[in-house]
Amino acid sequence: MIGKIKELMDVKKDIKILAKSVTGLDSQLSALSGRMDQFGKRFDDLLSNTEKGMRAMETQLREHQQRLAESADRLKEEVYDFKLLKSGLKDRILGVFKEELHQEILKNLELLRGDTVRYQKARDEVSGLSHRIGEASSDLRRFTDVATKLKKEDFNMVNYARRLESMEEQKARLRKQVDDLQRMIGKMRRRS
Which of 80, 115, 150, 154 could form a disulfide with 57 if both were Cys (CB 3.0 to 4.6 A apart)? Predict the structure, then answer.
C-alpha cells in the first residue's frame, strides 16, 4: 500500500518533470515562431527586391525598345534622304544600321540574360525558403500536438491520483469500523 503511494508520488514528480519539459518546449516553440517571423520578413524582402528588380528590368527593356524604335525611325529618314545615291551607298548604310542594331540587340540580350539568371536564383531561394517554412510549420504542429496530448494525460493522471487517495481514505475508515466491531464482539463475549 505504501509502495503504491510512493509510486503515486513518483508519478506526481514525473508529471511535474513533464510539465517543465512542456514549458521548455513552449519556449522553443516561441523561439521557432520568432524565427518563422524572421524568415517571413526575409522572404517578403526578397520578394519585394525581386519585384523591384523585375520592374527595373522591364523599364530598361522598354527604354531600349524605345531607343531601338527611335534609331529605326532615324535610319529610315536617312535612307530616304539617300535614295537618290547609288545602291552601293544604300547597302553600306543598311549594313551599318544592321551592325549597330545587332550590337544593340546583343548588349540588351546580355543584360536580359544576366537579369534572368538573377531572377532564377532569387526564385530558387524563395522556393527553398518556402520549403523550409513548410518544414518548420510541420514541426510546430507536431510540437503543439505533443503538448496537447501531454496536458490531457496529466489531467487524467491527476484524477486517477485523486481516486486512489479517496479509496485509501475509505479503506482506512472500513478498517477502523472492523476494529470497532471486533472490540464490541469481544466485549459481548466477555459479558456472556
Answer: 115
* Ramachandran bin of 34, using left for φ above 0, alpha for ψ from -120 to 50, beta for the remaining angles: alpha
Fold of 2-153: Helix Hairpins (1.10.287)
For 64-88, b where at least 16 C-beta lie within 10 A, e where not — what string? beeeeeeeeeebeeeeeeeeeeeee
11-36 pLDDT per residue, tens: 778 777 877 777 777 777 788 888 88
Q: Answer for the pair 101, 68: CB distance below 8 angstroms, yes or no.
A: yes
Q: At which residue does the C-alpha cell 513552449 appear?
A: 26
Q: How confident is the model over 36-79, as pLDDT tens digits?
A: 888 889 888 888 888 888 888 889 888 988 988 898 888 888 77
